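Quick note —
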Amino acid sequence: MKLKSKFLWILAAAAMLCTTACTDDDEPSGNGGGSHGGDTPGKDIVDEVSQYEARAFDGQKRGDVFYEIYVRSFADSDRDGIGDLKGVTAKLDYLDDMGVSGIWLMPVYKAGSEHGYDVIDYREIQPEYGTVADLEELVREAHERNIRVILDFVPNHMSDRSEWFRSACSSVDSPYRGFFHFSTTQRDRWYSVPTGTTDYFYQGDFDRSMPDLNYGQAATCDGNKTFKAMADAAKFWVEKGVDGFRLDAVKHIYDNQTSDENPTFLKKFYNELNDYYRGHSTLGGDIYMVGECWMDTYNVARYYRGLPALFDFDCWDKYLLYAIQNSHAKWFPKDMIASRRVFASERADFIQATKLSNHDQNRTRTSVGGQLKLSGERAKMAAAVLLTSCGQPFIYYGEEIGMMGDKFKAGGDRNVRTPMLWDAKAKDTYRATWVTSDLNSDMSIGNVASQSRDRNSIYNVYRKFMRLRNTYPALARGEIELPADFDDADSENKQVMVFYRTLESERLLVIHNVSEKPSTYVVNHAIKRPVADMNRVTVETKSADRHEVVLPPYSSIIIEL
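Predicted structure written out below.
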């Protein structure tokens, strides 16, 4: 009887363990992963990211946060293994719940490769992604949620399989001959014409499969046939309701990247499209156009002569990544202020598009380094800084669940463009399967469903801080300022980042500890109250004008003044 009872007790204990540990297809719920079971996460658990009570998010999209989507990997609606436009539409409630203001779709046009930057026809949708009608439906549904839609647009080149290029190669008298660069002299990155006029060569800076477009002299490019044809292609999508474009590789349109040629072209292209948009958009205002100009701050600034918005690559590559990798955060806000002054010298109403990773770079969690738990804490830290700092944040899909990827390993770009994980694999009806990842799985990082149930997950940090940015106008559009004693502050406390965000009467103090070591920061002026934190920051009031902020490792706090 004793042996039998002991055996039954062991079986019962095993059953209890299985019930506890084996739910949700053995997926973890913690630091690595997850999301919600449906299309919108739970409303309550996210508030437990912070111990303090912020103003309630009223649904207004003040934060102007954009979300970059690789359609092939985002959400597969028809179970053919490849993500599609209907899949994106199905996930709009998820994006709306987080507080996303706009989505950037990587190329969706008919193209010659999986990345889509070798466009064959700008007026057709890649068949695997759906139809033009599907995109129109996506735009309509997005607008109902106050989400703008911008498309990737590639002004530098097209596919060698496009009708324009094939016709141009066939004869020197082709109406498209002037659309591309031809020469009887071969140069670096010039390739033999494959058919027709085979004694000529054509320019293809990125690859032989992507011949460069020719706009003629920059000063008169708006009268060029190529310019008009490309502008007409963009206008086609404006007519479909699209709100703007992300312009790819703008420094390559003309070969001299530091001359005035590219900014001149961009200004003409922007003005042409903006005039058209104003006459056709139902949303009103100006078209949104952001350029990819992968250069340092001073060279990027010149491109503001042509476009209102440009990506600030130095923000992550030189400043924030260094701060997190080296636990040396003090100088980040000062660097950002300096960059903004440079941008403002070229354009008073500049839009500084900030980001962590994108489709061409290693995933954030991979870049910050460390074992799984440490990289997770650092990824949260990067998100908290991005979403409380100045600029207009762009979030690459999957960053909010800590997806990993190293483009410099075997597999290249595919490593940073793998499928989004929505739910446990056995019940994930939207997970694309065209490629798999050894790094990103339900067991390693979790998924949207599991992470939404975990108050400490990367997902809930993203959701909380995105909602805070939407709730507090000063976080969204306020100026960024340094503390008065910045230069006198304790030089040993370099792991702590401190700045103010101010808009009209609203003033917030933001403090981040980007290190695995705890720290204390003293605020020597009056405060009203803490409104949000991450990782249990405490404020000890010593007097009306002295407050000790105790910062655990990898923690943040926002204090209303």
